[in-house]
Amino acid sequence: MKITPGKLSGLKAVANSLGVIAAAAMDQRGSLKKALGKEKGSEVTDAIMEEFKSAVTEVLTQHASAILLDPEWGLDAAKKRASSAGLLLAYERSGYDNTRPGRRPDLLDAWSARRLKEAGADCVKLLLYYTPFEQVGINAEKHVFVERIGDECRSNDLPFFLEFVGYDPGGGDEKGLEFAKTKPAIVAESMKEFTKDRYGVDVMKVEIPINMKYVAGTASFSGDVAYTRAEAKENFLAAAEVSTKPFIYLSAGVSNAEFTESLELAAESGVRFAGVLCGRATWKDGISIYAQDGVGPFKSWLETQGVANIENVNRCLEAASPWFTAYGVESPEALAG
Predict the structure, then answer these.
(1) What pLDDT does residue 305 have?
(2) Which of 152, 144, 100, 107 has its CA nearest to residue 126?
(3) Model pTM score
């Protein structure tokens, strides 16, 4: 296995000295704007979005190997990241196309992989809502869509991070017990599909393959059982075993405590994950402080509780494996093409 110079350079830029991807995520747009507006009780301007993202980036990249931002409100924030932190930029529009069924993706109109690279991106990230239980025709469209982005990243020699998030095509409760029972299959089948070379994905950004609230015997357990602890560990392994590419976990908006417990269970299962891209689990509890008291108190909160949150995640990454070991090598230089 060989990797082109640009892809190799980009992957090294977003990993730490051990080759583990310990990245923060601050590419939230629609959900962040909604949350800020609810807390402020007023309109959320472009300046507010930029200021919030800049504060998170400035503080948390001191403790992260990289930051994921969006080119809509995150480019000023990118300039405030720690010099040691790499930059991933999101390519998709916030949300999804709601004019047709199937949660189809859309790209930002004014951007391309080339332009993201020119804006300073070390890597490109695409979010895709995906489930193997969707209509065949809809998934075929999504496969083609990802192939196109993979080819675009290849032609610009940029690493391609694909984030896929499962959903229920029938519109059921995706936080409920029944969806929790299907989540392991959704995650594993999605990883099995997009690890194929045809898509050009360099790193898969994947969901925790179980819902911790339904794992008996955990601190996050809510009372209804979807899986025993042993079954949960088997689900971690089943998803990981189909992957031929490095993969990292996303926090999916859960609490810091739940996400770190998930990572501890992943480690206990023996999964060789390459790190995390963790967003709301580190900074979302500071939204009300920013909305009510302003950026100064928010930065103070980030410097204390926000840093504590990201360090909780970083401690869990002691069990992570360098991204390049997914290719059976002991150093990234062994992959140089």
Answers:
(1) 98
(2) 107
(3) 0.97
Residue 337, pLDDT > 80, answer no
Relative orientation angle of helices 229-240 and 177-194, to the nearest 10 degrees? 20
Residue 303 burial (CB count, 10 A): 15
* CATH classification of the domain holding 161: 3.20.20.70
Could you say which DSSP state residue 93 is in?
P
**How many domains is the chain partitioned into structurally?**
1
pLDDT band at 1 (very low <50, low <70, confident <90, very high): confident
Q: Which domain holds residue 25?
A: 5-335
Q: Which helix (H) or strand (E) holds 235?
A: helix 229-240
Task: For Cα atoms 244, 248, 90, give the angle at the middle one, nearest 5 degrees.
Answer: 105
- Spatial CA neighbour of 22 closest among 78, 67, 53, 54: 67
Structure confidence by residue, pLDDT tens digits, 12-69 = 999 999 999 999 999 999 999 999 999 999 999 999 999 999 999 999 999 999 999 9
Which SS3 state, helix, strand or coil, does residue 86 take?
strand
In angstroms, the CA 105 to CA 164 distance is 11
Query: What is the distance in angstroms between the CA of the first residue and the CA of the last residue of the chain?
Result: 8
Residue 335, Cβ neighbours under 10 Å: how many? 17
Contact call for residues 93 and 107 (beta carbons, < 8 A) = yes
The CA-atom distances, in angstroms, between 207 and each of 25, 95, 106 are 14, 17, 21
Radius of gyration of the chain (CA): 19
